[in-house]
Design goal:
Structural class: alpha+beta
CATH architecture: Roll
Order of helices and strands: EHHEHEEEHHEHHHEHEEEEEEH
Largest sheet: 7 strands, mixed
Strand content: 15-25%
Strand order of the largest sheet: 3-4-5-2-7-11-8
Number of helices: 10
Number of domains: 1
Radius of gyration: 19 Å
Length: about 300
């Protein structure tokens, strides 16, 4: 029995979604509310963050995620620059339009103050590569033949899912706190590494008559007690509207000044929601599939809170 590349990609996406649901109760609340109304939970995109810096054995920056997506038939589609935040990003799409887009950003570490560069570089310089030689062999076989035996595919999915976590050692508490002052993005990546930054509900496919758009969905979530972003990015009827829940906080490990591991509270992830408008491409109407820089800028800030 064989598992095709598309089936394996779906299995990996599902595994990452279940891992995320266990960590982000606001996303589970959305999923439960939609399914209880007979609607569909479809995700528009998944976001990842990275350091564009030498990260040991792991590819640097966007390549940390891109090199895996290459095996899974995801293609780079759009490029974005966020100069004030010192970020660049690429989004990837799959030929199956119901598969979430993948939005990968990288912090241009070389543009930070020298002391911040040094802190990041020292923390990630000895990063191991989290995929085994066997996993790479299976990915190459998948690329060549388009499928794998089911047992091998199941093992590969589990190993790939394990890649999406922090790959370097527990960071120094002082580094996290100091970096947060110049880039909350930097502090987040130091703590969470390759972990999913957020998933995003695709409101266009939600199919809940009571919540026909982003505004009514956000209102329903707020009324159910889910803490929401104060406003919606983008005007009604525009090609892209976005909002999100607030970010949840987790206890994360850091190394204190005495060399001991302790736990502090820090933001992990929010659940984003997006509604897309129709554009014309070569005379054919289709949903806009890209991202808008100014809106994305505001959403990067959702992992920043008053006390971190």
């Amino acid at each position: 029995m064989k598992t095709t590349a598309e089936e394996l990609t779906k299995l990996l996406l599902d595994e990452l979604w279940w891992q995320y649901l266990r960590r982000v109760p606001y996303a589970k609340a959305y999923a439960d509310m939609v399914t209880s109304k007979g609607g569909k939970v479809v995700n528009d995109h998944i976001a990842f963050r990275s350091f564009n810096s030498h990260t040991g054995e792991q590819p640097e920056g966007i390549r940390a995620i891109k090199h895996i997506l290459n095996y899974l038939d995801y293609k780079p589609t759009g490029k974005y620059s966020f100069k004030k935040k010192k970020l660049n990003a690429i989004h990837f799409e799959h030929h199956n339009s119901l598969f979430p887009k993948i939005f990968v950003s990288q912090l241009e570490v070389s543009e930070l103050p020298d002391w911040a560069q040094q802190m990041i570089n020292e923390a990630v310089v000895d990063t191991p590569y989290l995929l085994s030689d066997n996993a790479i062999e299976l990915l190459n076989l998948l690329k060549e033949t388009g499928s794998l035996p089911k047992e091998a595919a199941d093992l590969l999915v589990l190993e790939l899912a394990g890649y999406f976590r922090r790959p370097w050692d527990v960071p120094q508490k002082e580094a996290v706190l100091k970096l947060n002052d110049v880039s909350q993005y930097a502090a987040w990546v130091l703590l969470h590494g390759n972990s999913v930054n957020h998933f995003t509900a695709f409101i266009n496919y939600q199919e809940v008559p009571e919540w026909p758009d982003l505004a009514t969905t956000c209102k329903a979530l707020a009324e159910a007690g889910v803490p929401m972003k104060e406003n919606i990015e983008g005007k009604a009827g525009s090609i892209l509207q976005q909002s999100s829940t607030q970010a949840i906080k987790e206890l994360v490990e850091v190394v204190n000044g005495n060399g001991d591991v302790e736990k502090i509270k820090w933001t992990y992830a929010y659940y984003e929601l997006a509604q897309r408008g129709v554009i014309e491409e070569n005379g054919v109407p289709k949903l806009f599939s890209g991202f808008l820089g100014e809106q994305a800028n505001h959403l990067f800030d959702m992992t920043q809170t008053r006390d971190n």
